[in-house]
Structures are given as C-alpha cells and as structure tokens.
Design brief:
- By secondary structure, the protein is an alpha/beta fold.
- It has four domains: about 180 residues, Rossmann fold (3-Layer(aba) Sandwich); about 80 residues, Orthogonal Bundle (6-phosphogluconate dehydrogenase C-terminal fold); about 210 residues, Enolpyruvate transferase domain (UDP-n-acetylglucosamine1-carboxyvinyl-transferase, Chain, Alpha-beta prism); about 160 residues, UDP-n-acetylglucosamine1-carboxyvinyl-transferase, Chain, CATH 3.65.10.10.
- β15, α16 and β16 form a beta-alpha-beta unit.
- α7 crosses α11 and α21 runs parallel beside α23.
- The longest helix is centred in the N-terminal third of the chain and has 27 residues.
- The chain is globular.
- The structure holds shikimate-3-phosphate.
- Shikimate-3-phosphate binds next to α19.
- Belongs to the prephenate/arogenate dehydrogenase family. Belongs to the EPSP synthase family.
- Pathway: Metabolic intermediate biosynthesis; chorismate biosynthesis; chorismate from D-erythrose 4-phosphate and phosphoenolpyruvate: step 6/7; Amino-acid biosynthesis; L-tyrosine biosynthesis; (4-hydroxyphenyl)pyruvate from prephenate (NAD(+) route): step 1/1.
C-alpha cells in the first residue's frame, strides 16, 4: 500500500478519475473524498469508488497521510485554509503529503505560502497532463492517466521522500513522471495548452459573431471542427486558468500575434517561397518532434497526437518484427527505391545552391528524410516529397539559418557526418543528435580532421559519439583553412564531410583516400557547377565558390537491389530483373563479387541518368562457390556484405573476407551481428578482427541451408533485410525483431518481397 488513507478533494473529472484509478489498482488502504456536490459523493460511495465522503473536509480527513486537491484553480486557496485548520486540530500530521492537480502552478504555490506561511515539507505541486472535454464525476475514466505525463514541480522546501511517494502513486495509475520548476511549468503549459484553448474559444466567438453565422456553422468543414474541438471545454475552468496563468499566457499570446502578422504579410505579398517554407516546416514539425522525443525513426507510425494530450512523448515505443515462412523461388521484374547516398546529397546541394533544384526518384526513406528535415530546420523551403519528387528552393552557399532545436538525424550516419562538415563552416552554433544506433557510431573520424581545418566541435563520451556540438565561426572568429588529409579509412562519408567543409575554407582542401570509395559527392559538386579536381585517389576543392541549382534524377539504389540479386541467386528456378539501377563504378562491387562467386548476372539497357550510369540487372538461380573476396572490392561493396554473407552460406566451400573492419562500425557491428544470426541458423562461421570466414553449405538450390531462428536486427536495416533473404533456403520460420529500421533505406521491402514470391508477415510487437 502506498498510503494508508488518501483524501481527494473535488470529484470532478480529474479527481474522480484518480479515485477510480487508485481504487481499480488497489494502491492505497482507504480512499475518502470531499465534494460540495452531494450527489457526486453519494454516487462515488454507491459505486464503491471511495470508502467515505462528505461535503466537509473535517468529516473525513482524519488519518489521511495524503491529501490531493483537485478543485478549480481559483478555489485552491480556500481549500488550503481548511487543510491548515485540520492540521492545527491534529486531524492530520504536519508532515503528511499535500498535493494538487492544478494546471497552473505559480498561483498554487503563492496560495500555499499565504495560508501556511512556511511551505509544508509534504507539499508536492503536481499536474497530470490529461483531460477531456467532458467534466464531472460521471465523465471519470480509470485509464485517463495511462501513458500521460505527470509533472511534479520540485520545491526546495519539499521533502524528497514526499516527492517519491507522490511519483509512485501517479506511476501506479499509469502516468510517466516529469519534473520541472514552477515558472517553467507555467510557461510550457501556456504554449501547449492554454494558448490553443484560448485560440479555439476565440475562433468560435469570431465566427459566431458574423451575420451569416448560421451558414458558417452549417458548412463548417473539418478544419473548423478539429480546430475548435477544445472550445467545448468548461468555460469557468478556462476562465480561471487564463487569469491564474496571466503572465505566461500573455507572453505566449504576444508572440503568437507576432507570428500571425508575419504570416499575414507573407500572404499579402504572395511570398510563395517563404509561405511554403513555413507551412512545410510546420507540417513536418509535429511528427518530427514526436520522433525526436522518442528517438524513433521518421516513417515509424506515431500514435495520432490529437487523441491525447501528450501521446507524442510516450506511446511510440512499439517495434515491429518479420515472421518469415520459408519459400523456394522468387521471380519477376521490379524497381527498387532511389539511391540513399544520392538522395541525401541532392537535398544538401540543392539547399546550398542558388536557384530551384528539382529532384525525381528521391528515396522517401527515413535517412534521406532526416536530411530533408534538417535543412527545413535550417530555414530551407523544400516541397514534397511526393512520389519521389522534391523541389528545393536553394538559399545559396551562405543562406542557412541556425536551427532552433538540435538537428535530429535519426539513424543516418551519412546525414550526421556530411552535415558536420557543412555546419563546422557556418557562422552559427549547431547540435546534432540521433537515435540509439547512430549515437553509438564513431564521429571523431570527422571531428578530428575538421579540427585540423580550424573547426570547433565536440563529440560525446570516450568513444567520440553523438551528440556533436559545433561552435559557429562567428564565435570562433576565424574561417576554416584548407588542409590535405590522408584518410586512414576509405570512407566516402569522411571524404564528403571534408570536401563540403572545404567549400567555405580558405584555400584548397585535399582528401587522399587509401582506396576508391563512392564518388557521388564529387559527381554532384560538378553537376552543381563546382570545380572538383580528381587525380586518382586525391580529390580537391577550393573554397569560396557557388553552387548553381540543377535537376537531379536519382537512380535506383544498387544496395537495395543487392537483396534481390542474392535472393534470385540462392533460390531455385528463379529469375529477377531489377530495372534502372545505379551502376556507378564505385558502387558495383557487389556485382563483381557475385560474379566471382559464379552468379549468373546479365547487365542490359546501359544508359546515363543525371550524370550517373544506370542499367537493368538480371540474375538467375546460380550454383555459387566460396571465394576469397579481393580487398580492393571491399569499399565498393561496403553496404552489401550482410547479404553477401547469406550468399556465402549457400555457396560451395569457404568464403573468406578480410580488410573489412569498417563493417564493425556501421548501423551495427555487422560482422558480429551477422555471425550471431548465421550461427543461430546453423551456419559455421569464424569471426576475425577485420572480417569473417563462412563455411558455405552448398548443395543444389532446392536444399535448405538455414534452419529457423529468432534473430535480432540491432536497429540495422540491412541485417533485417539480409536475413529475410535467407528464408529462400530455410527449413523453418525465421523471425526477425526490430525491423522498423528497414524504412531507413527501403520502404515497402516486405510488400515487394511478397509480390515476388516470398512470405513475410509484418507484426507490431
Ligand atoms: C555512404 C558511405 C558509406 C556507406 C553508407 C553511405 C555515403 O559509409 O556505408 O551507407 O553516402 O557516403 P562510409 O563512408 O562510412 O564507408
């Protein structure tokens, strides 16, 4: 039992719901209530919600070790006076808990000070962020607080034990505890609750005063109804709240008026770019903050925030799984979504260019959307994406504005590393954050050379991970300097980061890569009219130039095509054609490796789209053989190894991979995670420091190679998709947990697999 006896004063919606919730969960010994409205007390006793009740505190309070004041804000002071008297009369202990549920806090604390003189040690101001339009005892709901926040305002005078006890009670009824100062609470609530209610009441009033008000209400569309839903709330309660929280509310209202008049002038001036920018930012901001608060991916469905007051922050924790029943063949012709690397860069370069860039074939996956959102946050107007089309109204090389919040990169390493280069050169400060997987990945690989260029930036923790804090050049007082950097690893992200920083640096920035890595940055810089010097493995840019907008057609992603290439190769009687796949020679390592393994691959319809070579790839069932993978192919197939390990498991003989240490710092440690999964599925493999040895099981393509297993993806999209492909040679069901990250690079993956003959059921868990 959390308390011997709780006394709830006020059986309105919140008080009665709390009583019911406490009762249903049997959290306290005895529950008593006070309400001036006798029928509510009678009903609560009859419904067995409370043990005793009265219209007077003095009748029932004796023995209560917790009193919760749930009356309108205006009457809190009068109730405190009664409580103070019962204390003096010895009906309750002086150190007992006194709490409340009011939606404004400063006035409650002031009222308590006036009555008690010295604030009692058991005084715990609290506020559940929950409610409904209906009020009164009969509107009570036992689950009203489940997954809602309960704010506790910590006071110096309060005993921490009292705070813990109150927190336990609210957690017991399903709430999530948040703590904040009194003033901060009132300011936050002014913005998130009081201002929206005020606007809803005001809009109804405005329209109701029109002469043709009947027509306005008769034809009122969804917008009016949705916007004014909360104007059905209790006027007395809101009157009291508006007055009680006057300073913070007036502040919020003044700011609102300023924004409204700015919006008005955008319409008057028909400033489409700015107007679209504002509307686009607002449209995505709601969803964006929801993901940021929960560190979840963008395409993960958020609970509709309009149903509850704070579901944005709490109820999005579910993840999904694939349950895959074995299948044997896969056939058909298909396209796969746009290239992830090119999609990222199209947003970055388009934003920094002069003029309007139109992108087609844009990958509407999490990672590229994170980049898009980041540039919106920095004031760029971006239309779309819609059916792969995005229009970017470039702000020019010096046109980015500081984001008002930390930039959230979701799962995307490319966004974080490339943006670090861009932001290190900006005059303003920035903070870059990401989800759980991204927050484990090494960021010093870009931070270190950027510091050599004169940037000031800080990574987090011993392992140099996100969040990254970047100090703007204004504070630093100096521009970046061009350097020559000998890269220790063949990383396109590090190379691109430095070349991008180099656009603002004084002089020449040169990157020397130990081996060729993907060259989309170099190609796209040229497409946007920026001079890039490429001499073998040495790439240079000179700072101070401009980018000029151009149209970008994003080819299909060869990394996504790879799953179907391996699928067709390992399955029986299969043939797959993937059309218009990007064939940039710095990305085709997977084709070379599969060919070395004896895969039956044909390339046709070779052409160019937007400066990148594309072609159709046809691949048939093949008798694969194990090989030693040439090290120079590793950077050219860096993202395809997880699925190549599946191919190797189905090959005759051993496959040996070396020089692939980089795989350990991808979205997961892809060597360790793949080895675990393969072992679970019955494949022998040995992990080495920089690679893996896989004992292929061979056989003809009708024989199962894998058993069944439950595999965890470690938030890594490519792990999830690779093990899905294994189901074509499995004898039993493969369950893959944590597959929501597939949306980072391949929205619609499971649906496409099923269309081609596989059997994937997607389940929310
Ligand atoms: C990418 C580069 C590669 C790759 C990643 C995308 C890029 O990373 O793994 O998926 O777009 O530049 P590294 O540069 O770290 O090898």
């Amino acid at each position: 039992m959390l308390f011997e006896q709780v006394c709830i004063i006020g059986l309105g919606l919140i008080g009665a719901s709390l009583a019911q919730a406490i009762r249903d969960r049997q959290l306290v010994g005895r529950l008593v209530a006070v309400d001036r409205h006798a029928p509510s007390i009678e009903a609560a006793i009859a419904d067995d919600v409370i043990d005793a009740g009265s219209d007077s505190l003095f009748d029932v309070v004796a023995g209560s070790d917790c009193i919760i004041v749930a009356v309108p804000v205006k009457t809190v002071g009068a109730v405190f006076k009664d409580i103070e008297q019962t204390m003096r009369q010895g009906l309750i202990e002086e150190d007992g808990i006194i709490s409340d549920v009011s939606s404004t806090k400063l006035n409650v604390v002031e009222a308590a000070k006036e009555v008690f003189k010295q604030l009692p040690s058991g005084f715990v101001p609290a506020h559940p962020i929950a409610g409904a339009e209906q009020s009164g005892y009969n509107a009570r709901r036992s689950n009203l607080f489940v997954n809602h926040s309960l704010i506790i305002c910590e006071l110096k005078t309060t005993d921490p034990e009292a705070i813990d006890k109150m927190a336990n009670l609210w957690e017991g009824v399903g709430a999530t505890i948040m703590k904040m100062g009194v003033e901060h609470h009132d300011a936050v609530l002014a913005y998130t609750s009081h201002l929206p209610h005020l606007l809803a009441f005001n809009l109804v009033e405005q329209l109701a005063s029109h002469d043709d008000n009947m027509d306005i209400f008769r034809y009122a569309a969804g917008g009016f109804r949705d916007f004014t839903r909360i104007a059905a709330s209790d006027p007395v309660m809101w009157h009291d709240i508006f007055i009680a929280n006057k300073p913070a509310l007036i502040n919020a209202l003044d700011e609102y008026s300023k924004y409204l008049s700015e919006l008005r002038s955008l319409i008057v001036n028909e400033d489409s770019t700015q107007l679209l920018g504002l509307l686009g930012r607002a449209q995505s901001a709601r969803k964006h903050f929801g993901h940021m608060l929960t560190s979840t991916p963008y395409t993960k469905k958020l609970t509709d925030p309009s149903n509850t007051d704070n579901s944005m922050a709490t109820s999005n924790q579910a993840s999904s799984a694939y349950i895959i029943t074995p299948s044997t063949t896969i056939n058909g012709s298909m396209t796969v979504p746009g290239d992830k690397s090119i999609s990222h860069r199209s947003i970055m370069f388009g934003s920094l260019a002069e003029g309007v860039t139109k992108v087609t074939g844009f990958l509407e996956g999490e990672d590229a959307l994170a980049t898009l959102q980041a540039f919106r946050d920095m004031g760029v107007t971006i239309e779309g994406p819609e059916n792969g089309e995005v229009t970017i109204h470039g702000v020019g090389i010096n046109g980015l504005k500081p984001s008002k919040t930390p930039l959230y990169m979701g799962n995307s390493g490319t966004t974080m590393r490339l943006l670090s280069g861009i932001l290190a050169a900006q005059p303003f400060d920035s903070v870059l954050t990401g989800d759980a997987s991204l927050s484990k990945r090494p960021m010093e690989r870009v931070a270190k050379p950027l510091r050599e260029m004169g940037a000031t930036l800080q990574t987090t923790g011993e392992r140099g991970t996100a969040p990254i804090s970047i100090t703007g050049s204004d504070k630093r007082g100096s521009k970046l300097q061009g350097i020559t950097y000998d890269m220790p690893v063949a990383s396109a992200q590090v190379k691109s980061c430095l070349l991008l920083a180099g656009l603002w640096a004084e002089g020449k920035t040169t990157v020397i890569q130990p081996e060729i890595s993907r060259d989309h940055t170099e190609r796209m810089l040229s497409a946007f009219g920026y001079d890039v010097e490429v001499e073998g493995n040495k790439i240079s840019v000179v700072g101070g130039g401009q980018l000029t907008a151009c149209d970008i057609a994003v080819p299909a992603d060869i990394s996504s095509a790879a799953f179907f290439m391996v699928a067709a190769a390992i399955a029986k009687d299969s043939e797959i054609t993937i059309t218009k796949v990007g064939m940039n020679p710095t990305r085709t390592g997977v084709i070379d490796i599969l060919k070395l393994m004896n895969a039956d691959i044909t390339i046709s319809n070779e052409t160019f789209v937007g400066g990148e070579p594309v072609a159709d790839i046809t691949i048939k069932s093949s008798q694969l053989k194990g090989i030693q993978i040439p090290e120079e192919l590793v950077p050219l197939a860096i993202d395809e190894f997880p699925v190549l390990f599946i191919a190797a498991s189905c090959a005759e003989g051993q496959t040996l991979l070396t020089g692939a240490k980089e795989l350990r710092v991808k979205e997961s440690d892809r060597i360790a995670v793949m080895a675990d999964g393969l072992t679970q599925l019955g494949v022998d493999c040995t992990v080495t420091e920089d690679g893996i040895i896989i004992e292929g099981k061979g056989g003809n393509n009708s024989e199962a190679v894998f058993g069944g297993a439950e595999i965890y993806s470690h938030h890594d999209h490519r792990i999830a998709m690779s093990f899905s492909v294994a189901s074509l040679r499995a004898s039993d069901t493969i369950k893959i947990e944590g597959v929501e990250t597939v949306n980072t690079s391949f929205p619609g993956f499971a649906e496409l697999c099923n269309r081609l003959g596989m059997n994937i059921e997607v389940k929310s868990v």
